[in-house]
Amino acid sequence: MTEHILDVRDLAVSFFTYAGEVQAVRGITWHLDRHETVALVGESGCGKSVTIQTVMGLLQSPPGRVTGGSIHFEGLDMLKLTPRELRSIQGNRMSMIFQDPLSYLNPTMRVGEQIAESYRLHHRVNRREAQAKVREMMELISFPEPERNMRAFPHQLSGGMRQRIMVAMALICSPGILFADEPTTALDVTIQAQIIELMNELKEKLDTSIVLITHDLGVVANMAERIYVMYAGKIVERGSAADIFYRPRHPYTWGLLQSVPRLDARQDRVFRYIPGTPPDLLNPPAGCPFAARCPYACRACAAYMPEETDFENAHACRCWLYHEGAEELRKKAEADWKEQGKEVGSHGEEGAS
Ligand code: SF4
What we know:
Blueprint (H helix, E strand, L loop, with lengths): L5 E12 L2 E13 L4 E5 L6 H8 L8 E10 L2 E2 L5 H7 L4 E4 L3 H4 L6 H10 L6 H14 L5 H4 L9 H13 L5 E5 L7 H18 L2 E6 L2 H7 L2 E6 L2 E7 H6 L4 H8 L40 H5 L4 E3 L5 E3 L8 H18 L9
Parallel strand pairs: 3-8, 3-9, 6-7, 7-8
Antiparallel strand pairs: 1-2, 1-4, 4-5, 9-10, 10-12, 11-12
Helix pairs in contact: 4-5, 4-7, 7-8
The protein binds iron/sulfur cluster.
């Protein structure tokens, strides 16, 4: 049996506030294999960023606290490490790229020095050796005019160049895992494509695995091999990228896919959205958290959380539609999904664009 590089089981994380306990992550199980890219996908507030912060040991506590489950990274029990042990892993064996480089780069330090600092934190090297490593990294990320730009301050670079600097800082120690939290959200589409290509290239060259956190299914399609769809602190569907894009099963996944703007769709169908808002996690519903927004919700949905139904190829979802007693409703839901596919162009067929 292959050992996963990262193994998260039944993880539960809450924030203890004056208003009460906000159950941000509610018992999720997922894993990452070596050389793999997986994506955690969902709307803002679904728990994906909290999950990653917890895995990296960056959860702010208080008010955050892990209330259950386990996290193992290369066999290490991450929840039992001392702060010193955690620091030796953060930025070294596990690294992160954030969505807004300007908030994370030091405005008073030259970017070359900032990359070198990331390296020197974890390696006993002198200044000159660190600078040589930075030059090597700048070449690897194809940074234009590296000698000149290494001496620039963050505000003197474009958004795309700043994000390249973040990628260089995150990867300079060749981490086993790179977490990318909405890495391209603040960039325009052409630069987005360059950053995605760069991360895919570096993953191969540096032998890294990637966890991508995003609400943008376009980015996911270009990077991830497997996808976990999160909603209200739970994983509601999981599967290969092909299964999630071409054979989605959960009504929330259908909604997410329909929300991707389609320029080839009829004018009135270009922008679609999921009506309603996610539930309040101070008082999460007992049943399916999507029930208040789901067009196929029945009485059981609001009262009981469905178990996972397994399909082929490790594809699974949590939805009462796949209960044997819900055959008629399921057929109607699947027919609606196919019908909507015809309206927006095409979906449901592998190879369709
Ligand atoms: Fe909709 Fe019910 Fe399935 Fe939840 S369990 S997604 S409410 S059909």
